[in-house]
Amino acid sequence: MGKGFQVVVVRDYDPSRDLKRVEELEKSCEVGSLLVDLMGDPLARIRQSPSFYMLVAEIDTEIVGMIRGTIKTVTRGGNALHDGNSPVISTTKLAFVSGLRVSPYYRRMGIGLKLVQRLEDWFRLNDAAYAYVQTENDNAASVKLFTEKSGYSKYRTPTFLVNPVFNHRVTVSRRVKIIKVDPSDAESIYRNRFSSTEFFPSDINSILTNKLSLGTFLAVPRGSDYVSGSLPGSWAVISIWNSKEVYKLQVQGTSRLKRTLAKTTRVLDGALPFLKIPSFPNLFKPFAMHFLYGIGGEGPQAAEMVEALCSHAHNIAKKSGCAVVAAEVGSCEPLRAGIPHWKALSPEDLWCLKRLRDDDDGVDWTKSTPGLSVFVDPRDL
């Protein structure tokens, strides 16, 4: 394939004629060591958002690149205090850049930059004030494209915490009582306790009632009761998103020795479950994941409550046939200690943010001071 002068056409994605070629491109583009299988629906990861869009880049009849984007309203960072205690909640229209792929045969031709610029045109047309992108900290090419060529600022450095699902059930602390709350109560908890958290989505109700949301679970001390609108001195909450129905992942490029060692741990865990051996899941064939979002809590036992909720989530994932449970939290998240994870499976992320237009109050979100927590929208995975 020659790389001389070739006309690159960027246009809207058309599922009736692009589906197979987009799937082929996705398979040729590993994301680090991960292969992503969208299970026949390239829009699956974005169609849960209020507004979404997908573009492809084409040379002749070959699709050589693609990009996706969404727009929603979220809580903006840098909220001032209006009475010395409670924050003034400022919202903004935020766009999200997702799923940028360029064929390995056509890289270093400016195709990625052209796709980003065209997507940003759609963002501006729909009145988005900011755009952000998530990438891995060590993905030098992606970081360079967005920060050096596209005007994005390095903004937050959350960690994607991944914990394997073992062949045995995990014991949930007997000191903790876990309650599944209905979506309306869950919405009240999130709006009352987290609406000032950075990136909190205004349409939280749409997420909680989505068919992919498996429920919201509240942890309280054993012996306590939960009454709608009233929480005890220590409590924690998580919600579970079923990524299994959206995409599957597969780890590539691992040595035979490592795969054999991982299999050995699974065999031992399956044969001797009472020993509770921490087994390494089979990530070398397509696997599914549950994502924990809306993690929060208060009180001296909050971290213990989060850990109990994560154990409960592990057992739900085991029953569903998932290989891992994951969560993403801010670098200063006070409840991070309660989230079990394997460091070897947990990459450091980088969120980059760009200002597309002025908000009415003139505040520049890209220059705000980080808060302790961020709200990670499961639709942005």
From TrEMBL:
Pfam families attached to this UniProt entry: Acetyltransf_1
The record's InterPro entries line, in alphabetical order, gives: Acyl_CoA_acyltransferase, GNAT_dom, Plant_NAT
Molecular functions (GO terms): acyltransferase activity, transferring groups other than amino-acyl groups
The N-acetyltransferase domain covers which part of the protein?
8-177
User: PROSITE patterns under this entry?
Assistant: GNAT
PANTHER family attached here? ACYL-COA N-ACYLTRANSFERASES (NAT) SUPERFAMILY PROTEIN
Q: What is this protein called?
A: N-acetyltransferase domain-containing protein
